[in-house]
Amino acid sequence: MRFILEQDVNRLLVKAESFLLKHEAENNLLLGLLGRMAEGEDMGSVFGYGEDYDRIRIVFLHTKGNRIILSHDTVWTDEEAAELAHLVQTLTPNLPGVIGPVQQANQFARAWQQLYGKQIKVHMNQFIYQLDTVKDAGVARGEMRAANNDDFTLLRDWLVRFGEVTGEDMTEERADIVIGRLITQKRMYVWMVDGDIVSMAGCSRESRNGIVINAVFTPEEQQRKGYAQGLVAALSEKLLHEGKQFCCLFTNADDPGPNKLYQKMGYRCVAESSAIDFQ
To answer: Would the pTM of this model clear 0.85, i.e. be above it?
Structure first.
């Protein structure tokens, strides 16, 4: 396999988008971030692809401070994983980790460990879910509404707590940016009961036919009342009604509660993924 570093995200999409769209839901992270970059967002990125005889076999993307992302539907050898690791290390020697299909992410992580002596640790095993039709919205009291600027502080604080629960590095500064962007773009929603916000969920990383639901959080005192199910189902239904063919989301594969909830709603698992940290 020959690895190519790209400098122009639009040129990469012309070359590789059809490859990524073959497994659109599974590649939602790559497609969504590349789409934002194509719209002009600067992420301090390193990106490219691997090919054989002009046939794309893998797409990779590293945004500043984050794990490198590997595309799904990739089969490669340990030697090819080591080749990519060496190429990436010359540009981002302090790479914090990798996320991608389980086997390929582990191949890359082992290569990084052998080449550079880093310890590797699985941060989270994940399921990637796709929903085409909402089957069960639940019967929770309340209703969904779009978040507004008056909700900013509460939702920012909840996003920090969400990061603590999931083990992601979500500083208050970063949460400010994320929540501010989602509210401005009308992509942050809350579930209201008797005038109070009891749950939140966002949507982002839009691809050609799908969109990702994320940042689903309900504080402990409001859990086990069906609010998250009501909100995610309502938001999924809204996005489908507006023209998306599917919604997708990531879950912690080792946490059975949310997985059962999303399956009940109509989400089906389409892939497994692994997020691995380098220490």
So the answer is: yes
